[in-house]
Amino acid sequence: MDDVECSSSATCSAMAASYNDQIRPLLDAVDRLRQLKVTQEGIQLPTIVVVGDQSSGKSSVLESLAGISLPRGQGICTRVPLIMRLQDDPAVQDASVLQLEYSSGMVVTTSEAQVADAINAATAEIAGGGKGISDAPITLVVRKRGVPDLTLVDLPGITRVAVQGQPEDIYDHVARMIKAYIAPKESIILNVLSAQVDFPTCESIRMSQQVDRTGERTLAVVTKADRAPEGLLEKVTMDDVHIGLGYVCVRNRVGEEETYEEAREQERRLFAEHPLLSKIDKSMVGIPTLARRLTEIQATIIARCLPDIVREINDRLSRSSDELGQMPPDLSNVADAARAFFHIVKQVCASLEKLLLRGEFDEYPDDASFHGTARVAEMLATYGREMPAQPQRPAAQLFLVEEMRVLEESRGITLPNFLPRSALQVLLKKKVETIVHVPHGLVKQVWEYVGDLVMRILLRHSHDYPQVQSSCRHAVQSLMDKARQRSAQHVEELIEMELAADYTANPEYMRTCGSIMQEQDMFLKAMEDAGSSESTLQLRFGEVDVSHLKLDDAELAGQAFDLKARLAAYWNIVLLRLVDGLALHVLLSIRRLVEKHLAEELTGEVLGKDMAGAKRMLVPSPGTAAKRDRLRNTIAVLRESREVVANIMDRSSALG
User: What percent of the chain has pLDDT over 70?
Assistant: First the structure.
């Protein structure tokens, strides 16, 4: 007998040593990751989440596992998430060692007798003195001899009806909190059910089924078995609610006078001797069984999730480091700020050179509004089409009447077969006045587009320094105003040149004029025959009617035809000069803007004589500073987390 006891003792000792070597470090590592708040970086940790309807016996189960008393009272006792870290510590003999951690580093040491009051005080500090709830957690560390090594998250009980002092939306708030904890695939759901209710009607069952339809992550603990033993065996064996990890039935401790050791003995006797409850398989009853099952499940889920945690930490660390590396550097002096600003200007000019000069759109392949050369080319093409080859003659104006009138008014003392030059100038001026709005419209359209494009590119490259964007915007507006004024002045000069002298060396003028004059004899013949034959004929001017022209005016009409032919041929030359001249001016102006004027204007406006803009750049924007601090904190947390996980994986590998 002694040999058997010795052998059994040696086996237990070996199992405990194996547990301490392999499982306990995993739990410690996950607890350390939780302390580092790595979940705030989007990395889910293996967690046992305790849920249950109000008065289901949740607190009693946790008390039995931890061997300590938790807050009691009417309504919701748990008003914030309570993270319970149970640690078996053989060195602790009589009293347990209890610590509360909350509110970003607050640590309070307490005792078993005072732990309930300490939890209530911490809860009041977090969630207020009423009956409201909060998402901010409290961590209770319990170091005690004989407790299972577990970390559980206890959440507020589910209640449908708000009692006095609770917010009206208490159910929605609790439901959101519970779903946030149980939704991740890394969470194990410990669903606490009262034996006194039908399981399918429990709200906690409905919630867990929404995120774990197959029940593969759900373990049910059935409380108050001694109060409702009838039919319990059928409930836990038929499994109408799909509890994949099975059931454990327990007896709640009765009253404060019953010790936890006495409660466990009463529980053992209940499930061994009760005529109904004794029929339940012994692997499904008792707090010790629950503790063992939870410990096994926790170790399994941690081992399974650890590789994914490592990968997720590395991925997020890489992304955060890249994001921090892409942020603007800290500027320590005016010279640094000036260099940073000149770098921005260089980037802006490089982008604009690609978009407005070289026609390269790799930076914005899918946004046609950034394709500068294509958009400007469209504007120039439209401008060319809007410059009419021949202005439309008013419908009431008869053929050659205007030309004949101008010739009559321009008549002077001169040889009879000479056309007065002033007549051509009068008609040319009238033609120019009909189209002068078109080039001015092009100027307005081009510089509005270029100004908008420059501003968008500038804002993109200076987004890290919003403190200088106002000055940049003012500089761009000023530059566009100057460009518009120069282009408008150029249009005025083009018009003025055309009106100053009727001159061209383009041989096309003589060819066109000669071609039109070949129709003059046909026109005069039509005048002679107007009374006896058809009075309309087709000329290069279009279909014309000569019935209004008198034969006595044949000489004047012939001169008017000559004048009209010369004006038509010359008008083509005028249009070509106006279209090409303004187009070349626009393209040259855009090139000068990109290659020279923009950098000069920005530098003068932002930096100026006293480097005011550079000084503003030394003060980081609140958004940039907050983002940089957040990334640095994230990287620090992830690096420490990676080290924690690496150490535990190295240790596991060494143990085989």
Answer: 91
